[in-house]
Amino acid sequence: MGCPEGTIYQLGKKRFDVNLDYCKGCGICANECPVDDIDMVLEAGCEEPVPSGGGKGSDSK
Ligand code: SF4
Asked: Rounded to the nearest whole angstrom, what is the distance from the C-alpha of residue 24 to the centroid of ligand 1?
């Protein structure tokens, strides 16, 4: 995945997560996701949206 901050990491064969401590909320990952599985949402207490993971592309479903 094309995160310029390197915050996206793989948990399983088709499962990924984001280290929100380093996410800038730029939205590049959501725009580039090949399965359109990243939604940008406002994190509590933040003014910029951050990606949310764990959708249809994850192994957990
Ligand atoms: S929104 Fe966050 S995780 Fe996504 S590309 Fe930007 S810095 Fe990386």
From this structure: 6
H helix intervals, the chain = 28-32
Q: Are 14 and 58 in contact (CB under 8 A)?
A: yes
Whole-number pLDDT of residue 32: 92
How far, in Å, is the centroid of ligand 1 from the Cα of 1? 10
pTM of the model: 0.73
User: Is residue 55 within 8 Å of residue 38, measured between CB atoms?
Assistant: yes
**Tokens 């939604």 belong to residue:** 39
Residue 10 CA, ligand 1 centroid: distance in Å: 14
